[in-house]
Amino acid sequence: MERKRIYLCLAHMSDAGLEQKYIQEAFDTNWVVPLGPNVNGFEKDLESFVNEIKVPEPVEGTTFNDGISTGSMTCLNKRLVALSAGTAAVHLALIACGVGPGDEVIVQSFTFCASSNPITYLGATPVFVDSEKDSWNIDPELMEEAIRDRIAKTGRKPKAIMPVALYGMPYDIDRIMEVAAKYDIPVIEDAAEGFGSRWKGQVLGTFGRYGVLSFNGNKMITTSGGGALICPDQEAWQKIMWLATQAREAYPYYQHEAIGYNYRMSNICAGIGRGQMTVLDEHINHHKHVQKMYEELLAGVPGIHVHSQPCSGEKYDSNYWLCTITLDPSLRVKGQENAYQTVIQGAVGGAAGVVHATESAHTDCEPNANVEAMRVILDQAGIEARPLWKPMHKQPVYKDAPAYVNGVSESLFKMGLCLPSGPCVSDEDVEYIVTCIKNAII
Ligand SMILES: *Cc1c(COP(=O)(O)O)cnc(C)c1O
């Protein structure tokens, strides 16, 4: 029997088919526009979710937080705007923090380009900061060094600080907020991959001035494509809403006194989102379950390490969006002498077959041969695996941007792989994947 291909993280609809019910309602009531009852309803659902703090119960003898809480309370008062993409949320948050041409923004280098690209849309410059070993996220000490050095070099403070919850893992938000407060710089949390991850029981994205969420097809929940911005208060919320709807002034005709954007989420997409909110907890628990299985099944395999949250169940509560592993450089994998022999035909996640042809199979910074060999073996076994995000300070497009590095993200990039983790990945799939990994090792 032919196996179904196992993907990194596929969208998964609620068993009750609520997504279709909400979409049908939108059609029936003719709300096929970028506003409407589903958008409002989705925003309300998101607000209830992010405003609730769960008092976490430490799990004895493990770094694993199973999400069981001793209690929960609604203590926050954040407002949300649903948008067409997480990238749009990053863009609007930067604008709201006053980022403009010539400004600098501190951003985690170990991330997807959607964190940093909007900085350049605004004519500003990203200042990349490397990661700490434990969480793989922005190193608060190095971040402070970067802030001090930028002030010394340019005479001006960076306009914002953007940590990123890589693969769902929380950043050390306590220390980040401490440094940010010391220099009075607003924090924009990129929690696009960390929707539902918590720090001391509080949802990521609710600590900084703004928080970015993504509902792309491969994220924790999906609206097919979409995102949201968590706003600190009513005033900020109004400003974001206004910017997201082409900055219309209150006149019977279209009067524009500022440049706005067409970034509001459609009522159809929001219908999917409302259905997805009913399975969010289920999805998070499943991702955690898959992570736990990988941790257990790969525990005894020499040369392979599963990335797990640092030893403090009370602080870290990752949604484990993707399970990630690293391969020791000394680990020998079948076929590694032939790695990178062929030029890749399709880019990772390339749009409808549109890819830029490359001339060489190599770049000056790429995953080790054993990692590439493992990727190819898994691919041939019908398993999608992918290298970690290539740090932005190693991307040619950002070669001129200032970077404060300690080698952590570059070294992880060379050793790391993401494994299938979504709600469509079964226990049997995980066992099969681990067997394939073990068989690939010489
Ligand atoms: C997915 C993602 C985004 C952007 O989200 P989109 O909805 O795809 O625009 C931003 N930052 C990070 C780190 C992401 O992974």
Task: Identify the notable features of this structure and list them briefly.
single chain, 442 residues, alpha/beta, Aspartate Aminotransferase, domain 2, Aspartate Aminotransferase, domain 1, 2 domains, 17 strands, 33% helix, binds pyridoxal-5'-phosphate
On the 0 to 100 scale, the average pLDDT is 93
Shape: globular
Can you list the ligands bound to this structure?
pyridoxal-5'-phosphate
The level 1 CATH classification of the largest domain is Alpha Beta
Tell me what the CATH architecture of the largest domain is.
3-Layer(aba) Sandwich
The CATH superfamily title of the largest domain: Type I PLP-dependent aspartate aminotransferase-like (Major domain)
Question: Which series of helices and strands comes N to C?
Answer: HHEEEHEHEHEHEEEEEHHHEEEHEEHEH
Number of strands: 17
As residue ranges, the low-confidence spans are none
Number of domains: 2
User: Mind describing the biggest β-sheet?
Assistant: 4 strands, mixed
CATH fold-level name of the largest domain: Aspartate Aminotransferase, domain 2
Helical amount among residues, as a percent range? 25-40%
Distance between the termini: 28 Å
Q: How many H/I helices?
A: 12
Overall SS class: alpha/beta
Task: Set out the fold topology.
Layout: H1 18-28, H2 37-51, E1 52-56, E2 69-74, E3 79-83, H3 86-96, E4 104-108, H4 113-121, E5 125-129, H5 140-154, E6 160-162, H6 173-183, E7 188-190, E8 198-199, E9 202-203, E10 210-214, E11 227-231, H7 234-244, H8 267-277, H9 280-297, E12 304-306, E13 316-317, E14 323-327, H10 369-380, E15 386-387, E16 403-404, H11 408-415, E17 416-419, H12 427-440
The structure holds pyridoxal-5'-phosphate.
